[in-house]
Structures are given as C-alpha cells and as structure tokens.
Automatic annotation (TrEMBL):
UniProt entry keywords in alphabetical sequence: Coiled coil, Glycoprotein, Golgi apparatus, Membrane, Metal-binding, Signal-anchor, Transferase, Transmembrane, Transmembrane helix
InterPro entries recorded: Chond_GalNAc, CS_glycosyltransferase, Nucleotide-diphossugar_trans
GO biological process: chondroitin sulfate proteoglycan biosynthetic process
Membrane topology qualifier: Single-pass type II membrane protein
Protein family according to the UniProt entry: Belongs to the chondroitin N-acetylgalactosaminyltransferase family.
Name assigned to this protein: Hexosyltransferase
Enzymatic reactions: 3-O-(beta-D-GlcA-(1->3)-beta-D-Gal-(1->3)-beta-D-Gal-(1->4)-beta-D-Xyl)-L-seryl-[protein] + UDP-N-acetyl-alpha-D-galactosamine = 3-O-(beta-D-GalNAc-(1->4)-beta-D-GlcA-(1->3)-beta-D-Gal-(1->3)-beta-D-Gal-(1->4)-beta-D-Xyl)-L-seryl-[protein] + UDP + H(+)
Species of provenance: Cnephaeus nilssonii
GO terms for MF: glucuronosyl-N-acetylgalactosaminyl-proteoglycan 4-beta-N-acetylgalactosaminyltransferase activity; glucuronylgalactosylproteoglycan 4-beta-N-acetylgalactosaminyltransferase activity; metal ion binding
Amino acid sequence: MPRRGLILQTRTHWLLLGLALLCSLVLFLYLLECAPQTDGNASLPGVIGENYGKEYYQALLQEQEEHYQTRATSLKRQIAQLKQELQEMSEKMRSLQERKNVGANGIGYQGHKEQAPSDLLEFLHSQIDKAEVSIGAKLPSEYGVIPFESFTLMKVFQLEMGLTRHPEEKPVRKDKRDELVEVIEAGLEVINNPDEDDEQEDEDGPLGEKLIFNENDFIEGYYRTERDKGTQYELFFKKADLMEYRHVTLFRPFGPLMKVKSEMIDITRSVINIIVPLAERTEAFVQFMQNFRDVCIHQDKRIHLTVVYFGKEGLSKVKSILESVTRWIVFFHTESNFHNYTLVSLNEEFNRGRGLNVGARAWDKGEVLMFFCDVDIYFSAEFLNSCRLNAEPGKKVFYPVVFSLYNPAIVYANQNVPPPVEQQLVHKKDSGFWRDFGFGMTCQYRSDFLTIGGFDMEVKGWGGEDVHLYRKYLHGDLIVIRTPVPGLFHLWHEKRCADELTPEQYRMCIQSKAMNEASHSHMGMLVFREEIETHLRKQAYRTNSEAVG
C-alpha cells in the first residue's frame, strides 16, 4: 500500500509540473503575439537610449484604435448589407402575396381595359405623380425645360431638327406613326366611353343619338417625354358643329397608357387681350393690323387690342391706322365699328417690358387672358384657340415657339419679286426655323402675371426681359407649356443692334440677326458665291470650246 501511494504521488507531481510548463509556454506565445513588429535594424520609438518610451505606447494605442475602428466600420457595412437584403426579400415576399389581388384597370390602344397587379399599378401611378403633369416643377433655368412637340393627324411640328429633319414633316418612322395613332384612339375611347369620375357631360346628337367622336374630330395634340418617367400627351377634340372642346391627358409611364383626366373646355366666352408695345415702325403696324382685322375682327370676334406706344413721333399715324382698320363694311353695306381696343401713349424711350406691364395694368375689367405680342408677328385664328386651351389661371402658362421666317430677298432670290406674305407662311427648312431661343410671345392670365411680379424694369434696350419673366414661372409652381405651334409666325425684318447695348445684349442681338437671315444652305451659297460663279464660268467656257471644236 505505501509503495502504491508513492507511485500515485509521483505521477501527480509530474502532471502538475507538465501543466505549469504548458501554461508558461502559452503565456510566452501570447507575449510574442502581442509584441509589436519591428525592424531588426531600426530603433524603437521613444526617448533615445530607452527601449520603451511614452511615444511608443501612444503610437501603439493609436494603431490598435485605428484597427478596431476599421473593423467596426466593416461590421457596420456588412450589417447594412444584410438589412438591405432582408428588406428586399421581404418586399419580394409581399409582392408575391399582393399579386393574388386584383388591381385597377389600365387602358390599351384597342380601348379594352386590362387588369394588372396592384404593385405594378402603384408604380405606374407613382411615375405620373413624379412627372410634371398635374403640377409644375421648379427648374433652375430655361435650359431645364422639356418642351412639347405638337402634331395633327398628318403632321408633326418638331424642335429637334439637325440637318436632316424638317420643322414640319409627316411621321416617317413606323414606331412614331403607330404611337400617335394609338394615342388618338385611346383619347377617343376615353371620350366616347367616359368613366363616372370624368368631368364631362353626356351630349346627344341632333337626332337624339349618342354623340360619338372619331379621328376627324381630332384638332391638335402635344407630347413630350421625360426620359426617367414616361411620355405625356395633351389631346384636343372638337365637333365641327359644337363650340366646346374635349381635352384628354394621357401618360405612358413606359408601359400601358393611363388616363390622367378627361374634361370639357368651354372657350366660347374667353376674351384675349392682345398687348403690343410699339415705337415708330408704322409700316409694320399697318401689316399687323391687316392680319388683326382678318383674324380677330372678322373671324374670332373675342379679342381686345391694347397698343402701348412710346414717343410722340408717329403717334397720330398709329391712331389713324387703328381708326381705319377697325371700321369695316358689313352686310347691307352698313358701316360698323370695332371698339375693343385701347391706345396707351408713353412719352419715353422704348422698353418692351415696361410697355407690356403698362398694357396689362391698363385692363380694368377683372380677370382676362393676355397674349403678349410684337408688331412683326402673324397669327391665325387656330392659334388664338390654342392660346385659350393651354393657359389656365393659377395652373398653366403658354409659351409657344414661333416659326421665324428668313429674309424673303434670299429665300425667293430666283423670283423677281417675293410672293405676298400669306404665301410665305410655310414650314420649310429653307423658309424659316423654330425660334426656340425666343420667349417673348406668351399667353398667360392677368392674375398670374401680376402675382409673379411682371417684367423686370431694370432690363434696358434689346432682349432679356422676356427671359427673366420666363424664369420666374420656371421657379414657381405653374406648369409651363412650351411647344411649337403652326399658326404663329415671326415675319422677317432688318435688325439694327444699337451701340448702347451691353456686351451680352449686343451678342444676343447679333446672334439673332445672323440666325434670322437665311438657312444653312442659303448662307453657304452666299459665302461661296464667287467660287460658284467661277465654276459656272469655267463650265460655260468648256461647253463653248467643245461646241466650236
């Protein structure tokens, strides 16, 4: 028994000794792992002559802190990624569950209504809410505007031309033709089969039958595409024997067309106050008043004219022109007078913004739709209706793009005399261009104009005041309708850039003068005239030489 106990005691002693050695080895390895990595030839940081100084421990502490911060940042990033993946998986599960539910209806071009998942329709409607359809977007400058392009049943009036496209052309590409046909058919479906929430009343035909619209009742349309949202369409329909227009707004959020609204617009009592600032230029005013008489007095008959004249020279002649044009012979050879005009005289230097401000405030009969016009503008009765349809107090202002005609002496150089003005009003590449840098012609309600503060009176001389007003609307909440219209022309006239203009105004004036003169091809013919004439002389000489030989 004593020998057995001695053996057990010896084994226990060696076991404890082995455990002690193992613990010492682990502690030694731990100290080696925690020791800083140093270069064998480099001295440790700290005070010279010391192995471990204060700076050494600070550097070591900073290194460890940066290590833990990096690790913590990495862990936070991984946690965020896991949360995002978890959220996406949850949304997918919810989407699969919601697809069992039946959504609202969509509109196809055939007019039938399709059912779609509620999550898809929610997305499509969110695209409409994000787009500038029901409320205007605040934009930093005029370059941020997405302009509309206008179209009829047969033609498209476009701003983006380049050197191969034309300001007016038939839609050649099949996708563009199909798109416009689909849109018109969808608009007809909305009108002929209205929903209960549509703002229009059922009308009957002359025999009591239901009134049905067709593609021949389509008057005009506008469209524009916001590349990250979809395409907006504004459509106008009218029966020949009715006075009311039908307006349909459609939106294609890169998917099926979706109806935004359908309403009836009555413009029968909408009076337009055309305001024209003028100084001298009585010959141009004679031509303007001839157009005014034919369109406004004889056809539209819902117009008031306000002329704001600067200076004394030519004032009496302007009065005489107004009196003679507004007096005309009607049936039974009786004389009738047009009294809906106002002449305001300002004995001061011409300022377009000042003139339009005065003209707007001269109206004292409450709310009215105003058309800011120049004496060189030719407009049609159709344009006046477009003006009424695209301006709405507190909601929309209309900034049409004018088609500016080139110098007729260059355009019709092969004719002895240029044709009459009415025959020059064509949308061709060599006859003119869409004046997309001009913002002077606009239709807006008087209340909106006064609310926004009118024109900036600090702008003197040529140009600039219209851009300032345009930017005011862009910075506000109103929708700005910007589109080329076929019934609005700027007639060519010689420009003079005064020496008193600022450098920026003078640059704009010269640029406008150059662009107004002729098309790219006609300008090229003028520049290379001598080269062309030399070539023709050589050709004639060669032909004569061959004939003699």
